[in-house]
Amino acid sequence: MIDPFGRLVSYLRVSVTDRCDFRCVYCMSENMTFLPKKDLLSLEELQRLCGIFVRLGVTKLRITGGEPLVRRDIMSLFRGLGGLLDGGGLDELTVTTNGSMLDRHAGDLAAAGVRRINVSLDTLDPEKFLAITRWGRFDRVMNGLATADAAGLKVKINAVAMKGVNEDELPDMLAWCHARGYDLTLIEVMPMGEVGDHTRLDQYLPLSQVRRQLAARYTLEDIPLNTGGPARYVRVAETGGRLGFITPLTHNFCESCNRVRLTCTGTLYMCLGQDDAVDLRAVLRAHDDDQAVIDAIHAAIAAKPKGHDFVIDRQHHGPAVARHMSVTGG
Ligand code: SAM
Ligand code: SF4
């Protein structure tokens, strides 16, 4: 699948639910209205669609959400998709999770063929953790991480950098992650969806600033590592670990975008920051053979936008798109 800008699309991110057991302040408002369950694709439909994408050239699948591990019976989807690894066309099956259910599921994820997971964790302070996630339990995430380690999963921590919230803690978080063998990726707040009483201008911390702060304590060596994602990586000389920066606001990397995003209702978004989308659910349900779905996917790829237009400043602090990050899973 090649888009009009010559970019090869080989990575599909699948949001399997818009629901979550947390209410992170940058992601959701406290009172969210979620989709009625009847609108969701079944796990079998998700499996069928993912299989079609893999036949069309997707080699990497990331299961995300909302919180993917809260969806009932989600391990059956992981087991099914795991069958596409090792010669079935898929090179990597992975997941992004808030970690709250990892203590229950890490072993099953590993057994299904998942090797690496992303766990979102913005602070090491349990009180701050509660303030950021509103509903999260820090100790459960720590248990989940320990279970993931024991199951042999390679962990990357994702932390959203927030002005005045965790900015003073980021050097210590880096040390903590690298001491455990976890990579750390820092993310800029993106203006997606209304988040209640918090404004983006209050939350937004440019990572160019964070990088300067970290460089005062650590030696950051640029490395050319390209994981097919928007993160740019450095090696930290003192720890030997890797640190990534996802900077959609201060530096846009859309020119190398290789991904599209499927929601739990079967809507395919061609860009995280634009509204261009195609409904694959109707065509999937209307046809038992896959050709019509394949045609719809090709038409969608042909309409992939060039890039997002995220801006956060005094004039622009409302959402760039109305949907929340939990719809497309980041
Ligand atoms: N619930 C899972 C989790 O938190 O890892 C998966 C879904 S969550 C939407 C995926 C990632 O998006 C998380 O790392 C989260 O921190 C990030 N995220 C959510 N809203 C964001 C926003 N407005 N700007 C930047 N990152 C955001
Ligand atoms: Fe839930 Fe993840 Fe959004 Fe936090 S970032 S509210 S854990 S979906």
Give a quick account of the main beta sheet: strands, pairing sense, barrel closure. 12 strands, mixed
Please report the number of helical segments: 11
The helicity comes to: 25-40%
**CATH architecture classification:** Alpha-Beta Barrel
What's the CATH superfamily, by name? Aldolase class I
Describe this structure in words.
With 330 residues, the chain is α/β, with parallel strands linked by helices. The chain has one domain: Alpha-Beta Barrel (TIM Barrel), CATH 3.20.20. It is built from eleven helices and twelve strands. It has a twelve-stranded mixed beta sheet. Strand 10 and strand 11 form a beta hairpin. The longest helix is centred in the N-terminal third of the chain and has 13 residues. The model has no long low-confidence stretch (mean pLDDT 92). The structure holds S-adenosylmethionine and iron/sulfur cluster. S-adenosylmethionine (SAM) binds next to strand 3, strand 5 and helix 11.
Helices and strands, with pairings:
Elements (H helix, E strand, L loop, with lengths): L10 E5 L27 H13 L4 E5 L9 H9 L9 E6 L4 H11 L3 E5 L5 H8 L4 H13 L3 E8 L8 H10 L3 E6 L11 H4 L3 H11 L2 E3 L9 E5 L5 E5 L12 E4 L4 E3 L7 E3 H7 L4 H11 L23 H4 L2
Bound molecules: S-adenosylmethionine (SAM) and iron/sulfur cluster (SF4).
S-adenosylmethionine binds next to strand 3, strand 5 and helix 11.
